[in-house]
TrEMBL record, chain A:
The encoding gene: peaA
Signal peptide interval: 1-30
UniProt KW keywords: Signal
Transmembrane segments annotated in the record for this chain: none
Sequence ranges assigned to domain Quinohemoprotein amine dehydrogenase alpha subunit in this UniProt record: 209-310, 314-393, 398-527
Name of protein: Quinohemoprotein amine dehydrogenase subunit alpha
Superkingdom, natural source: Bacteria
NCBIfam families, A to Z: QH_alpha
Annotated ranges, domain Quinohemoprotein amine dehydrogenase alpha subunit haem binding: 33-198
UniProtKB/TrEMBL annotation, chain B:
Keyword Signal: yes
NCBIfam families: QH_beta (TIGR03907)
Gene (UniProt): peaD
Entry annotated with the keyword Kinase: no
Name of the protein: Quinohemoprotein amine dehydrogenase subunit beta
Keywords tagged on the record: Signal
Source organism: Amphritea opalescens
UniProt-listed InterPro entries: QH-AmDH_bsu, Quino_amine_DH_bsu, WD40/YVTN_repeat-like_dom_sf
Highest taxon listed in the record's lineage: Bacteria
Length: 531, 378
């Protein structure tokens, strides 16, 4: 048996199971979580007799639902645990409700839960080489353990990944001693098991997330969208979900699905949206008035974008969110059930209301040539929102988001598809000081741009990365090259590469450019719930 | 059993395997080399996936024989016995050692190091005493308890090479963590490449420092050397060679503009235990492994994306040849033919003076991290 293949298959199947596990609608709870712990976990773990930490090891850790999912997968993979789908759901729910993370504890690392690509982390030097040379900071930053448990984690690493103390950045130091006696105690301070935030959140009343939500978001290919998300509680922490709305180009969006809430605020929903399975990973605010996060295609988690939902009626965002002095343009005000007159602020006239839907109001707007540069509050009837629309004189700078993109070669008959990378251009006006790149710049939001690529450095030019690594389309979506050896390349290398993505926005006959790095990397063969 | 193995090998290696099949059918006798040449004739030994030991005649550059190695592919470590007759192979994900008679693929030695709830890994560390009577590994044990693991102390394990197919350590001695490649010397000691380069007396466990690496005190102007001890090499020149990478700060530590990047090496004479250590070349490109020219200790060859030739006294690169793909490992016969292997399923053969490619050996599977050692068959 090819061990690597089987490992890949196992982990990949498990990762898919995660999606299924959390989203199976209408699951019945034949056994309580504690009963499953006793029946399944105590085959190996023991009861300590200490009511503060009743189960060996288990009781001294707190994790996100994805974190507990990974723990259960590891127990299945390494230790022969057998769980039914129902038992697994019960355990993840029980453990993340009773030993989860508070909203504030997850805030810094939500991108990992959201499967957001293209994140460059700022890691504490104490962890850069000891932990983050293999893991994202989010992987350990989304766990809370006692010092003993952080030390047990080091020990587990030594047993399960015995060559890790020989890796580059391990073999030049006494890795095990440092991990055990320096890193683990620091982790126990920085990511402490006992934390006031969790103690408070555990006792707090959790919001019920029923109702109609005004939604604004972005999906690659389709673009900005607005929608009304209707949620109905089917049982405690379980919801049926309907989402209906429009993309900015006017095409319709609709889907239904279900959601489950973990730890009192972790919203995980699966929907079929216009025939495509998508997943929402959102965090509800502590008062339940808002949910923010990301929605992405289940089969291609890199194909997704931010989603913001406001409970009830509200102006969530404008597309576009800027208008030039003297310009007449169509503006979509994204928000649910907006009624009444539209006001776009001083110097911006609503020429005509073009359409009104449950999820949006589309207007034709005109900014006077003398309208002052700056942000405008927007209102529709009695619904108001601050600083939603920018009036600007000219585009002075363009920034590409993300600044550091990551795509992965794939396809070509292999097991893994290509992983694309989506770029957007954010425009800025210079602000009162007339200089772009300073603190008073005015953010004009996302703007259409012309997209192009160039080699990132001399090596990339020499290796002809531009020719082989992939292409970018008019929407800023980069599609990488095929996986596998390429006999046309030097040393038959595969189609990896280092490129620079260039966004060009035309401004008064001039071109304003922004650039971002793009790494076209090899496939990622192991898919984890938290990378 | 032997017959089945040989047929499988034959199917895999095609024409070369037919030779192996015929050879395998012949009953070998003690002292009979089964058609192979003695008198110090050089055979190249390497391992490919899924898990086969290949014996290659360096005169014909053909596979003479392919032996199925029990267990899952490990790291492909190979250690020839001093008489060249036995090839000890590390297998089963770093856990087991199996010794083959290379004239007939018979398994003459086997040691399973893991036991009960203890998993024992040996990372590359596999050596045979200079008289061939003892085999050494560095064992890294971990114990699996009910709900946790225990990290146990590493130890040098000494085996009697005549112990047969269920060999157990006859002596063990504590050693440091992070030890990878090891080699036996005429002094009777075993070189341990780890944080520093040490020598252990396998009779009593006494350890002495041969040369310092992690604990090398050169002040703030040098970074600690990073030695990548992944492939055992050196039999062609009767030496142990361990390259390292280091940085010299000519400005403030971390000031890359003023920094110098260096390859260095620790090289031990297996006859005397004498050590040379120091910088040998400016770092201009990655070299995975270096070997010494058996006729001139001043000349080194290195392999990775390039095959390169260096004068270490002058700290100069004499020639560079771009390879068709990445290779990890290299070796050289006494007549100075260079073999470059590892990673993929071919061994590239090169001229030592021009570095031009002069031949190739197609293997039935990928070498991955495997060693490429020379057995001098007596």
């Amino acid at each position: 048996m090819n061990n690597n293949k089987s490992k890949y298959a196992l982990l990949n199947a498990s990762a898919l199971a995660l999606v299924g596990t959390m989203l199976t609608p209408g699951a019945t709870w034949a056994m309580g979580g504690e009963a499953v712990v006793k029946e399944k976990c105590l085959a190996c773990h023991t009861q300590t007799g200490n009511p503060d930490k009743p189960y060996s090891r288990i009781s001294e850790q707190r994790k996100t639902p994805e974190g507990w999912q990974m723990t259960l997968q590891r127990m299945e993979h390494l230790n022969g645990l057998h769980l039914t789908s129902e038992e697994k759901q019960t355990l993840i729910k029980y453990l993340s409700d009773t030993q989860g993370l508070a909203p504030s504890e997850t805030a810094k690392y939500r991108y990992a839960l959201e499967q957001k690509p293209n994140i460059v982390e700022d890691v504490d030097p104490a962890y850069v080489e000891m932990c983050a040379r293999c893991h994202s900071n989010a992987r350990f930053g989304l766990q809370r353990r006692t010092e003993d448990e952080w030390k047990e984690l080091v020990t587990t690493h030594m047993a399960v990944h015995p060559t890790l103390e020989l890796h580059a950045l391990s073999r030049d130091r006494r890795w095990y001693d440092i991990a055990l006696n320096e890193t683990a105690p620091k982790l126990a301070m920085d990511y402490a098991f006992n934390d006031a935030a969790w103690a408070k959140w555990e006792k707090a009343a959790k919001p019920v997330l029923n109702g109609s939500w005004s939604v604004s978001g972005f999906m690659p290919e389709k673009g900005d969208y607005s929608a009304v998300l209707t949620t109905a509680q089917t049982s405690k922490d379980n919801y049926s979900v309907t989402m209906v709305g429009h993309y900015a180009d006017g095409s319709e969006l609709s889907g239904t699905g279900s959601a489950k809430v973990f730890s009192g605020f972790e919203w995980r929903a699966g929907l079929t949206l216009d025939g495509v399975r998508v997943r929402q990973v959102l965090a509800a605010s502590e008062d339940g008035s808002m949910m923010t996060g990301r929605m992405y295609q289940s089969a291609h988690d890199e194909v997704g974008g931010e989603l913001k939902a406001v409970n009830g009626t509200g102006i969530v965002a404008l597309t576009p969110s800027a208008i030039k002095q003297g310009q007449q343009t169509k503006i979509t005000i994204k928000g649910g059930y907006l009624k009444g007159a539209v006001k776009l602020g001083k110097g911006v006239q609503v020429v005509k209301v073009l359409s009104r839907d449950a999820d949006r109001v589309v207007v034709l707007a005109k900014a006077s040539g003398s309208a002052s540069v700056g942000m405008r509050d927007v209102s529709v009837g009695s619904t108001k929102a601050k600083a939603q629309l920018a009036v600007y004189d000219k585009v002075a700078a363009v920034q590409v988001s993300p600044m550091h993109g990551l795509a992965r070669i794939g396809g070509n008959g292999g097991k893994l598809p290509k992983v694309k990378s989506t770029f957007r251009a954010i425009a800025f006006a210079a602000g009162p000081d007339g200089k772009p790149g300073t603190d008073d710049d005015l953010n004009l939001g996302y703007m259409p741009a012309n997209w192009s690529l160039k080699p990132q450095n001399e090596v990339a030019a020499e290796d002809k990365d531009l020719e082989f690594a992939g292409t970018i389309d008019s929407k800023g979506i980069f599609t990488p090259g095929d996986t596998g050896l390429n006999p046309k390349r030097r040393m038959s290398a595969n189609n990896v590469g280092m490129l620079t993505v260039v966004a060009t926005v035309k401004e008064g006959g001039k071109a304003v450019e922004g650039e971002a790095d793009l790494l076209v990397a090899v496939p990622s063969y192991i898919k984890r719930a938290i990378q | 059993m032997k017959f089945t193995h040989t047929i499988k090998a034959a199917a895999l290696v095609g024409i070369a395997g037919t030779v192996a099949l015929m050879s395998g059918c012949a009953m070998s006798q003690s002292g009979d080399l089964n058609g192979m040449k003695g008198g110090g004739h050089e055979y190249l030994l390497t391992v490919t996936r899924p898990n086969q030991l290949h014996v290659i005649d360096t005169e014909t550059n053909k596979i003479v024989r392919s032996c199925d190695v029990p267990g899952t592919f490990g790291q492909g470590t190979v250690e020839p016995s001093p008489d060249g007759r036995i090839a000890y192979v590390g297998t089963n994900k770093w856990e087991d050692v199996v010794g083959f008679d290379i004239t007939n693929c018979d398994i003459v030695f086997s040691a399973k190091q893991s036991y009960d709830n203890v998993t024992v890994k040996s990372f590359v560390s596999l050596a045979v005493s200079r008289d061939g009577k003892e085999l050494y590994t560095v064992q890294n044990p971990t114990r699996k308890l009910n709900d946790r693991y225990e990290v146990m102390e590493p130890q040098l394990a000494v085996y009697d090479t005549s112990a047969g197919l269920n060999a157990k350590p006859i002596r063990t001695f504590p050693v440091d963590r992070q030890i990878t490649k090891i080699m036996a010397m005429d002094t009777g000691e075993v070189i341990l490449a780890g944080n520093d380069v040490q020598a252990i007396n396998p009779e009593n466990g006494d350890i002495r420092i041969l040369t310092l690496l992690q604990n090398w005190k050169r002040g703030d102007s040098w970074t600690q050397p990073d030695a990548f001890a992944m492939h055992t090499l050196g039999e062609q020149a009767d030496e142990f060679i361990l390259p390292y990478f280091t940085i010299k700060w000519n400005g403030d530590p971390g000031d890359m503009e003023k920094a110098e990047f260096w390859w260095g090496m620790s090289r031990v004479d297996l006859k005397t235990g004498e050590v040379e250590q120091g910088e040998i070349l400016p770092f201009e490109f990655i070299v995975f492994n270096f070997i010494t020219d058996p006729t001139d200790s001043n000349i080194l060859y290195g392999a990775f994306n390039t095959l390169s030739k260096h004068d270490i006294r002058e700290k100069k690169t004499l020639a560079v040849h771009n390879m068709e793909h990445t290779y990890y490992d290299l070796n050289m016969t006494q007549n100075r033919t260079i073999y470059v292997g590892g990673t993929s399923s071919d061994i590239s053969i090169h001229d030592p003076d021009t570095l031009e490619k002069i031949g190739s050996i197609k293997l039935p599977g990928d070498q991955s991290t495997s060693a490429m050692r020379i057995a001098f068959l007596k």
